[in-house]
Amino acid sequence: MPLTEPRGNLRFLDGLRGILCVIVVISHCVQLYLPSLRFTSDQTLKGRIEHYIACSPLNLFYSGLLPVSLFFVMSGFVISYKFNKTRDTSLITKVFIKRYFRFFIPISASYVIMYVLSCLFYPNHISIPHVLFETTFEAYFRNTKTINGVLWTISYELLGSFLIYSLLSIFGQKKIGYFSILYPSYLQ
């Protein structure tokens, strides 16, 4: 069974990506509707049971911490995959520029939704210039609390991607690369 599709997509990561996405969605719901499973301080019987669940392996099914970390690792692997396969340094510049715009579309869509909901339920709560600033700059380059709080990882993701591209451009042409961990030999 081939590990990649003809276009070069890594099919074997799709299932893992889907499972991780479901866990992140569950995590957001738990944080919103049942935060005591994440932030336990209640000393009643109910609070102690929630604390036990939060400290048990069941936490893996509703905490987004591990899935987000795995997304970062998978992203680093996928980012370096094509370069490690071709060793074409011109790819780095193209993908480096394209990365920002790849994030821009879904983030802009999420901000439009947030703005519309804010206008419906909290009129005059946020301004269009503020939303535009966060959509184009702040969510990516500053690790500050934004209107759309679940985007806290975007600055890490984008800057981490840029770091990987930079390291690939500096060290990627070496015969024995420093990035063998990002591209195991069994995929070559």
UniProtKB/TrEMBL annotation:
The keyword Transferase applies. Keywords: Acyltransferase, Membrane, Transferase, Transmembrane, Transmembrane helix. The chain crosses the membrane at residues 12-34, 60-79, 100-123, 150-171. InterPro entries: Acyl_transf_3_dom, Acyltransferase_3. Residues 11-182 form the Acyltransferase domain. Pfam families: Acyl_transf_3 (PF01757). One of its GO terms (molecular function) is acyltransferase activity. It comes from the Bacteria. PANTHER family: ACETYLTRANSFERASE, PUTATIVE (AFU_ORTHOLOGUE AFUA_4G08520)-RELATED. This is Acyltransferase family protein. It comes from Acetobacter suratthaniensis.
